[in-house]
Design a protein that fits this description.
Elements lengths: L1 H7 L3 H12 L7 H9 L4 H9 L10 H26 L6 H28 L5 H24 L9 H22 L1
Helix pairs in contact: 3-4, 5-6, 5-7, 5-8, 6-7, 7-8
Length: 183
């Protein structure tokens, strides 16, 4: 029955409504609170898609829990970008492409360490702002990969821009969380 309903829910907000009504924990944030939060971000639909439909939101009690989810979504985007390296290796098999993929792989390893640090910090009460800084540091390493495709050799569109853009958008959501927490 639930799988039939999910097939008919196409918008992130529709899925969010279904998920909240079907599985919400008693002391979790209400759907109204989650939607109101997403309205305060730069892109409501992006927020609902990546934060509002994350299964962990069902147990999120407050913005601290939403922060942990947002940072873990950054980790997920980085993991997907890292997997993309192997998927595009054939397309960029020349010396410049090989160098760029190697460069991105190395920088993604560094970014991963910062996102992991941010995730651990976010789980600790009182370290939310430090977690944000660590996540921003991680994004800088992702940016270096993006920059590699524009400035070293012939300009090419990075095959990882989608994931980097998602991380930038998630960082803007993290900024909203921090502003709401610390006013």
């Amino acid at each position: 029955m639930a799988s039939m309903l999910i097939k008919h829910l196409t918008l992130p907000s529709s899925l969010l409504v279904f998920v909240f009504f079907a599985f919400t924990v008693a002391d979790a944030m209400s759907i109204k609170d989650m939607y109101a939060f997403c309205k305060d971000t730069d892109d409501v639909n992006f927020c609902l898609k990546y934060i509002g439909t994350d299964i962990r939101i069902l147990a999120a009690r407050d913005l601290h829990d939403v922060l942990v989810i947002a940072i873990s979504q950054c980790q997920i985007q980085l993991t997907k970008a890292t997997k993309q390296i192997n998927k595009v290796r054939q397309k960029f098999s020349g010396p410049i492409g090989t160098r760029r993929l190697y460069f991105c792989g190395k920088h993604y390893c560094l970014a991963s360490a910062f996102f992991q640090k941010a995730y651990e910090e976010a789980q600790e009460e009182g370290l939310e702002s430090i977690a944000q800084l660590s996540a921003v540091d991680g994004s800088h390493y992702m940016f270096k990969c993006e920059d590699e495709w524009k400035n070293n050799g012939p300009i090419q569109k990075s095959p990882f821009t989608f994931y980097y853009t998602n991380v930038v958008e998630l960082l803007s959501i993290i900024q909203v969380i921090i502003e709401k927490m610390y006013g």
